[in-house]
Amino acid sequence: MIAEILHGIRTIRDEQEKYGQALKFYEQSLSTLKNYYSSAYIDIVCFLHYIMKALTMLDTYYPSYLLRITSSLNYFGNILRKQQKLDEAFDVYKRALTILEESFGSDHTGWTPTLTNIDSIGDIYKDQNNNEESLNYYQKGLEVRKLVYPLYSAKVAYSLNYMALAIVEKIDPDNYILIAAILGNIGNTLSSQKRFEGAFDFQQRSLNLRKTHCPSEYASVALNYNSIGDIRYQEDKYRDQALEFFQKALTIKEEFSPTNYTFIALLLYNIGYALSGQGKYRFESLCGGKYSVYSRQVQ
User: Fold this and answer.
1) Which CATH superfamily hosts domain 62-173?
2) What is the pTM of this model?
3) Percent helix, strand and coil across the chain, each to the nearest 5
4) Given a cut of 60, is residue 225 above it in pLDDT?
């Protein structure tokens, strides 16, 4: 209801040719929808219509707002993708990419959102099992990243891993050990960028693949659990889950690799840290009393 009222005010201001105010109310309505209705997959048809109308207006009056409009297009593209409306999502992402390329070219201002669109289009092709086109867009994203970022940055690593995943899934889809490793690498890269939701998803996919197809890869499974625990710990709202994952990793290492003292020590440290994050400042007995962890308040 609030979004509809704001959107109505935006329409009135538009008709009055008060474009600055129209844009302000448009952004408020969009923000309201994102905050309160994102999980319900709102009806976006009307808003897409007005975004396209706004684009025409912006070309003349407010070219500096193009980044905000393309950001909104990406938001709607993400909704369409979650609804499995892949062709529509592709059109929205492609429109945003065209705007950015035509408006900014080699200007640094538009590089980051351009990469977002390139990756999103590659993801759409991957969802459609069109690995060749998906790989083309990941390659394009890599070339842009090479221009924008240092060669060995996390952003380049992310693009390289995505390309590797597309290649392996295309030519050797049963190589579960390699695919799981690449998924874990992508998760680690996303975590280093503090993109924790995506990092968790990739680590979970890697873990599930190893548990299903590579159950003897105990060391790698333990690494997955530790990585997931680390991701959850860095997200304040999920810190309580971190302890569970660290303890699972420790149980596996203790059973299958009890002399790997370095990694066991790391896990014990992580468990102590997770306990401190929960406000539990005491000794904790682990692995049948073999280890005791004392957690203290983290300053």
Assistant:
1) Tetratricopeptide repeat domain (1.25.40.10)
2) 0.53
3) 80, 5, 20
4) yes
